[in-house]
Amino acid sequence: MDRGQDKQFGLIGFPLKNTFSVDYFAKKFLEKGVHFSYKNYPITEISLFEDLLKTNPRLTGLNVTKPYKKMIIPYLDALAESAIKCGAVNCIQIKESGKKIGHNTDVIGFQKSLEKFIGLNRNLKAIVFGNGGAAKAVFQVLDSLKIEYLNVIRGERSLNNQINYEDLDPVHYLEHSLLINTTSVGMFPAVDEYLPVDFTQIGSNHYCYDLIYLPEKTTFLKMGEINGAKIKNGLEMLHLQADAAFEIWMNSES
Fold this sequence. Notes:
Blueprint: E1 8-12, H1 21-32, E2 37-41, H2 49-55, E3 59-64, E4 78-79, H3 81-86, E5 91-94, E6 100-103, H4 106-118, E7 126-129, H5 133-144, E8 149-153, E9 162-164, H6 170-175, E10 178-181, E11 207-210, H7 219-226, E12 230-232, H8 235-249
Parallel strand pairs: 1-2, 1-3, 4-6, 7-8, 7-10, 8-9, 10-11, 11-12
Antiparallel strand pairs: 3-5, 5-6
Helix pairs in contact: 4-5, 4-8
């Protein structure tokens, strides 16, 4: 089937609250002069993915958000190198043949954004809070930039570089000047929530990066800023990963 100018795109996840994608892509399609549509598809479980495709045969591409960035993989026909390396998918390319290819454009977005944030200061170590789908992209970028990192998680540890929040001590903050939140803690509307971080250990030598973009400044970023740290939220990363997804979708022929 020739999808032509009736191509459809969208976002899958659950729940889909406070998403920027519909407005962002509507504006982008208008700027590019293409008559495509984009909508949210809040599927309550990943098994509904195949039904979604059957009832929307003109779908050409999908973004993927929590909690499905890893769960979507068995439903795809192939993975791009970006998705293979980090084990998570946030962008699906659906070709004319129906072949579904998983990509990870979070990697592109985070790396470009992080490089602008830290500049030439690559001789540092990082603490990454969380180990979900978004964290996998962060790990890949840090590995590619040869930035050593410690992964702070809740629950059982399975890797040598993982510790729990209660294990954090002043030495960790002293040795790791790049702090990255990949969790949803502090996201709107729960803006008063924050990770169990010892903010008294954060100072002017720290970089605090929060993948959350709503609110503009989470408690994590506010407290970091008060203590002199350089801060950045995830909005730029979000735009960059969306732009990368758009470029992938424009090459979805058979």
